[in-house]
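ok posting inputs for the 6-O-phosphono-beta-D-fructofuranose job
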Amino acid sequence: MPATPLLSQLPSFEETQQLAKRLRDASVSTMLADDSDRAGDFTLTAAGLQLDYSKQLVDRPALASLFKLASEANLKSAISGLLAGEEVNNTEGRPALHTLLRANTGAGLENKYDAVTAARKTMRQWSERLNAGEHRGFSGAPITDVVNIGIGGSDLGPRLVSEALRPYQGNVACHYVANVDPADLQDTLLELNPDSTLFIVCSKSFRTEETLTNSLAARQWMKNAGAGDADLDKHFLAITSNLDAAAEFGISPANCLPMWDWVGGRYSVWSAIGLSCAIAVGWENFEAFLDGAAAMDDHFGEAPLAANMPVIMGLLEIWYTNFFGAGNHVVLPYDNSLQKLPDFLQQLTMESNGKNVARDGQPLDYPTGPVLWGAAGTMGQHSFHQLLHQGTELCPADFVLPLTTHTGMTEQHRRLVANCLAQSRTLMVGRSLEEAHQSLLARGIDAARAEALAPHLAMPGNRPNSVITMAALTPATLGALIALYEHRTFVSGVLWGINSFDQWGVELGKEIGGQVLSLLAGEDCDVAMDSATARLIGEWAAAQ
Ligand code: F6P
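and the output
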């Protein structure tokens, strides 16, 4: 992928700035009222998802200008390059082929695709064997529980998918341990029996401190329960690209499923890293999940920019980050089973696009990667929505809404839908000072008090948001939803001119973590600590 010119140097940058300035005081409600085609025209369907962006603070000229910026940044060829396996991750000299993991053909990438299909076959075997109760532990008991030990991309994706697809749950329960805090592992193991538990050590590198520490403790737990060294293969699988380290840990090659350096951790739930999900929901459902993502990939690769869902979402991110100064983006899934979506998207977007230099290393003179946050509706309404409605911070929002529920409780679900649509509309319409005043008078409040209170009830409105809907949250629509956000992340990264597939910023903390650990263990460390850190280390030692 060639280095793209910086966003601020693209020919249409200034024109876009002018359009943004003009729209700052425009009213989205008025734009919707004045343009009877807007609601329909600013809605797009792809891969079982619908994106309604009609409540965004954009008009047709602004969108046209954003599409111009996208063309000037060579977005179309960047997309083709990503899908064709070009070396998009230039600092590590690799492609980023998460799309191949869910593809139904390996055109042009046959060798890698053969490896993918072989891994799928092994995943399927494990999923079917475990769900049929055919895999037994050291005491002869069938495995009933699987614990995925991993962190970051080796945890957040699988955790999200297993939780979101709980209505599709098979015979084996899946649990997730990530934190190096021993309480995470301890709390999980409290519920489990060693003889019916299987651990999946999920680590692309097999070097991650948290995962290795938890896996060693899990192995000890298994041994304490009476498992011998020869029994460990009945209880441990590894997903890794570092077979030597897995073997050193004691997991035989037959129990290792592959990962490849051409898949980034945060893009890896489609690979064997997603084995716990394939076990949780069964192979057919996992395949449907892959197919849903593949349908979004097809749309991303084929749809023109102006009708391309991830492209529009990425351009809206650029619009608010670079032309309105928004430093954050809020994702509000109105579905309890998508509670982990914001956590997953935090790693996806912030590890991918939290960068301050361009692909060629030159410093950027504009903001990138906004903070992503959120929580499942309706809980946020009773907590942070106050700030969304009346705060001084601009928080562009995505509502995510499955239109039906798996619970069978359709009347209660209707309330959830009503809340979602009401929040989306309220953010847009707000309430003028005069309306606030009138509503206070209508409540019987006296004129002086109504005048004093009105500014507190007034809401500016015009707070931009999209609504993403789907008929139901199924394996396929979940796959499409995750792929949608992956591609949105890529689009924004291309416009910002950055490499969205490395994460050098996490390394120094790991290095210093090792130095501090040596000091806590009373060992020598050849790096002197600053006085603040040294004092806290001393405080820790005194507390032991
Ligand atoms: O430290 C960040 C990171 O490298 C993530 O990018 C990755 O998803 C996570 O750690 C886990 O890495 P691994 O799968 O190699 O254990």
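notes: The CA atoms of residues 439 and 470 lie 36 Å apart. The chain has a mean pLDDT of 97.
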